Amino acid sequence: MERLITTADGSHSLMSPLFNQQYHSLQGALTESIHIYINLGLQSKIPSPHPISIFEMGFGTGLNALLAWQLAETTQTPVHYTTVEAYPITLAEARQLNYPSLTNTEDFLALHQAGWGEDIPLSPYFTFRKENRTLQELSHRRQYEVIFYDAFDPRAQPELWTTEIFTNIAAQTAPNGVLVTYSSKGIVKRALQAAGFLVTKHRGPGKKFHVLKAVKI
Ligand SMILES: C[S@@+](CC[C@H](N)C(=O)[O-])C[C@H]1O[C@@H](n2cnc3c(N)ncnc32)[C@H](O)[C@@H]1O
């Protein structure tokens, strides 16, 4: 099955046959990642008096990781980036993605070529760690200031949007740490609140009305 798709802003994404879901909004993968994870999430912690620790649920294509790496470089902010992925894409699939040309960087494939389960300093400003397991199996090693919560839709994977899941994440989130996600569904908002986050709705990218930002209180 052909997995590669082109979204409305010209950036690529993938389809998951396993979950029958696309990895990004069809209205624009790059636009979505920049709007939610970079601008609403990571940018809100920069400048930072100390290195920023990021956790991403769902490495997927690596687009969020690439954009976080770029921002770490341009702002000279040391970032430690941990991501978990249960069903990695292949290197051949990663090579098909048009992110290097859209973001003017040659660094993209380094994220996919990096080994699993070890801290890899990809630059003086960006240390990368990816874990090949499910979120439910993951034992965290650090506290995070920023969380990119990018699981497939709650209708496809309701088990990843529960109070229990967010309570585990809250336990790893630094005070005032932020979690951002594209889903603004009521069940997601309520589960985040029950886990101890202060949740606010924000304008989404393109035609998407709302996305969520949750602050650990
Ligand atoms: C919406 S996509 C992530 C998109 C990604 N952040 C990107 O920038 O391309 C969701 C990802 O979660 C992964 N996934 C699904 N179930 C998982 C689980 N239980 N634990 C960890 N990863 C999972 C999928 O394989 C997929 O790569």
Note the topology.
Layout: E1 4-6, E2 12-16, E3 21-22, H1 29-41, E4 52-57, H2 63-75, E5 79-84, H3 91-96, H4 99-103, H5 108-113, E6 120-123, E7 126-131, E8 144-149, H6 163-171, E9 173-181, H7 186-194, E10 197-203, E11 210-216
The chain binds S-adenosylmethionine.
Write up what this structure looks like.
This protein is of the alpha/beta class and 217 residues long. It has a single domain (4-216), classed as Rossmann fold, CATH 3.40.50. The protein is built from seven helices and eleven strands. The strands form two sheets. An eight-stranded mixed β-sheet has the order 6-7-5-4-8-9-11-10, sandwiched between helices. The chain has a three-stranded antiparallel β-sheet with strand order 1-2-3, with no helix packed on it. Helix 1 crosses helix 2. The chain is globular, with a radius of gyration of 16 Å. The chain binds S-adenosylmethionine. S-adenosylmethionine binds next to helix 2. S-adenosylmethionine is lined by residues 23, 58, 60-61, 63-64, 84-87, 134-136, 150-152, 157, 160.
Keywords:
eight-stranded mixed β-sheet, three-stranded antiparallel β-sheet, Rossmann fold, alpha/beta, binds S-adenosylmethionine, 217 residues, 7 helices, 28% strand, globular
Please provide the count of β strands: 11
Structural class: alpha/beta
Shape: globular
Report the bound ligands by name, code or SMILES. Answer: S-adenosylmethionine
Strand percentage: 25-35%
Oligomer: single chain
- What CATH architecture label applies? 3-Layer(aba) Sandwich
The structural domain count equals 1
Placed side by side, the strands forming the largest sheet appear as 6-7-5-4-8-9-11-10
GO molecular function: oxidoreductase activity, acting on the CH-NH group of donors; tRNA (5-methylaminomethyl-2-thiouridylate)(34)-methyltransferase activity
Protein name: tRNA U34 5-methylaminomethyl-2-thiouridine-forming methyltransferase MnmC
Organism: Dyadobacter jejuensis
Keywords: Methyltransferase, Transferase
